[in-house]
Amino acid sequence: MRPPVSFAFLVLGLSAACSRGAASPPARPEAASAALAVSVAEVVERPIARFIRVTGTLTAQEQAEVAAETSGRIVATPVERGSRVGGGGELVRIAAVDTEAQVAEAEANAAQIEAGLGMAGGKTFAQDAVPDVMNTKSAYDLAQADYERLRTLLDQKVISRAEFDRAFANVESTRQKYEMARNTASQQFQALMAARARVARARKALADTTVKAPFDGLVAERLVSTGDFVTPGTRVAVVVRVDPLRVELTVPEQFVSVVGVGRPVSLQVDAYPGRTFTGQVRYVSPALSASTRALIVEAAVANPAGELKPGFFATARIEQAAPTPALLVPARAVQSISGTQRVFVAKGDRAEERIVTTGQTLDDLVEIVSGLAKGEPVILEHPDALVDGAPIATRTAA
Fold it and tell me: Among residues 125, 107, 120, 106, which one has the least CA distance to residue 185?
């Protein structure tokens, strides 16, 4: 019995369809098999200057709260806050009328004593050159001469014993006057020394009416105004020295061995992005802080233009004594995701993901502490399709 015509056609149609499927299977999408074109660069090894990164605050090299040393009323204030002053420059001036009079009085008293001692015109003190001493010395010498002459006459029985005794008494009297004159001259000389000391003190008081800066620097504060009355100890101004500046740094315990006096320091501040200022370690604390287990290090930073200001927060780098080897890759080869650094390495025609630990940064290079070996090719681009095991076609970066 023959099958129906419609069924025969159905069988033939299914057979033809199966034949076509066997001959031409469906093609895979091109994106699943296309290799990513990427640039690579080798991991290189070279010596680099090691450093530790620390933070600190800039402070003035010197800061002085200048006070008055004499009493009086302020008559001039030639500086303002921010004024630059040299060492010995005038900060404020105090009325000097009274001190000028004290100087004149002290000088006159000293000059009077000098004249009495025969020291006018800058002569030096000589006890026997004092006029009173010279007069009594002459009288004493004359009495001695008379005594010697009368003693001869007494031996010759020319004069009486009473006349001779009077001559002897005159010798003793003039000798005592001479010794007294010498003692008085010595006392007057000591009085002269005291008078000269009063002159010096009066002159200092006169000089102190001009309050001066103790060193070159800037006026941070002026604390008095014209008309104020000041006494010894009254603060009149605050002067700071800002060249060089000091920066106090806190170094963690594990880096203590790499710091030392004389080591170069470079620092940056937020006020001048991209600028680097240089200095040198000049003090290393002899002991660690018990509370922080850290070492206090102080560096001096040159500031000739006055750009840096006390109080700036600074990020500093302290360099080690000698360079040491390091593995370096271009910075763009390293990705940081959620605090984890990763690098893709070209392994044949496939990308291999590596988790790495990074170290120092040198310009456009990054140090790799672990995760890579010297000479390995790292991929510089990171397209979204680049995953572990992705097919790649590499080319060496220019």
Answer: 125
Contact 169, 161 (CB under 8 A): no
Residue 31 exposure: Cα atoms within 13 Å on the Cβ side: 2
Per-residue pLDDT of 277-296, as tens digits, reads 999 999 988 888 777 888 88
Q: How far apart are CA 308 and CA 267, in angstroms?
A: 11
* 150 vs 334: CA distance, rounded Å: 124
Look up residue 88 and give its two tokens.
Answer: 């010995």
**Reported confidence tier of residue 259, pLDDT bands at 50, 70, 90:** confident
Instruction: Give the three-class secondary structure for 30.
Output: helix
Q: What are phi and psi of 43, to 5 degrees?
A: -70, 125
* Torsion (CA) 347, 351, 355, 358 in degrees, nearest 10: 80
- The answer to whether the CB of 116 falls within 8 A of the CB of 134 is no
Strand partners, 328: 44, 367
Which of 293, 290, 297 has the alpha carbon at shortest distance from 260? 297
pTM greater than 0.85 (yes/no): no
**DSSP assignment of 267-327, as one string?**
EEETTSTT--EEEEEEEE-SS--TTT-EEEEEEEE--TT--S-TT-EEEEEEE-SS-EEEE
Separation of alpha carbons 299 and 264, rounded Å:
9
Residues 6 or more apart whose CB falls under 8 angstroms from that of 256 comprise: 288, 295
- Alpha helices, DSSP H only, in 291-367? none
Block residue for tokens 């990074």: 358
Query: Rounded distance, CA 301 to CA 276, Å?
Result: 11
Residue 153 and residue 147: Cα distance in Å, rounded?
Answer: 10
